[in-house]
Specification:
- The termini are far apart.
- Helix 3 (85-95) packs antiparallel against helix 5, helix 5 packs antiparallel against helix 6 (170-208) and helix 12 crosses helix 13.
- The protein has helices at 2-19, 21-83, 85-95, 98-105, 114-163, 170-208, 211-215, 226-240, 244-249, 251-259, 275-285, 288-313, 323-342, 346-356, 359-369.
- The protein has 15 helices and no strands.
- The model is unreliable at 20-30, 32-36 and 372-377 (pLDDT under 50).
- By secondary structure, it is mostly helical.
- It has one domain.
- Keywords: Membrane, Transmembrane, Transmembrane helix.
Amino acid sequence: MLWSLLTTARGRVSRFVARHKTFIIASSVSSVCLLAGAYYCHLRFWQSANELTQKWQMEMFRRQQMRFFLKQTCTESLQTVKQFLPQIKKRLYEKFALENVVRKLRDPELRNDKKRRQLLWEEAKNLAFARFFSAILILSLWQLLVFAQLSTIGQDTFINDIENAELQQEKKRTNRGKTHHRFLSEGIQYFLGDGISKITDFVQSQLAKNAFLQSWQVHRMANVKQEEFTHVVHAMSESIQFHRKESVDDPEKLSMWREFLMLDTINRDPTENEGDFFYRLSSLLQNEYFSQALEKTVQYICTHNITEMQSAIYVDDECEPPLAKLIPQVQAQTARLIALYEGDDAMSQEHSQQIMELDTFQAFYETAFYPKEPVAA
């Protein structure tokens, strides 16, 4: 019985195959073609994927190289910032010769000259605050300038000496190094000369117009409450800070801040070897990233130092020192600020790191290094 069923089933299958032989063959061929097509599509996909992966890996490797090179550039920038601090400090202390006024106040011959002493105390007050806020602006702008210049040089060096090293002749490399040196030297010389003079003149003019400071007469301020100190010092701080939103409606104000760092390059001969670098720097200072970094960096350093100074003065709630006692505190805070930039201790390193990690500051100097991608991923 079972054999009969199997025989019958085999016969039906044979007849079915005979009737549909062409269809079955065609279907088999189609299946093979589809499988072959799928295989080659799959192969092409993996080839393309491998090519993309290789390109991506090369790009990631290049990014890592640039990251490393940028990190080295940051290290060089911090060293350059410190290297010229003695000259900056000398200019600042010569401009605001507070110590000379203090010596006069200690002169026994002036002990009974009340009017003269009042004038000297007012001069000491103005010099102390002018030195303090000038130090904040000078050090903030100095760090921005150095990072911008060295990032511009670093990016050029990376492209020409690292990526295309085999294409470069030693003579060309040497000439480029000389160009880098001239570019950096000219920028530093301008800042240490005209740049600092313009900054200190600006601070003096702003504080001279500050009604809060001018109403603070030393001989009348026997007690200065913490709230009043905070209010007046923050009012002075606001008057010397850069406000990005205001500069949108006042291009001359932004131009003034740029001129603290460099002269307009319109009259510079573009055929000069270092001329291209100054044009890059000029373009960078016209970038929105510069405005953001300038605003946030100055704001951060102002806030940090005012808070630190306030904590040193007002050690308890009952403390209400006379204004004459606050002047040495302002003087001391300026010295502490400069020491943070000069030193190599843990506090100095932390201070530098905090500024470098400001998003706007980082975006600014990376714009010089990544000209097509202002904000690094």
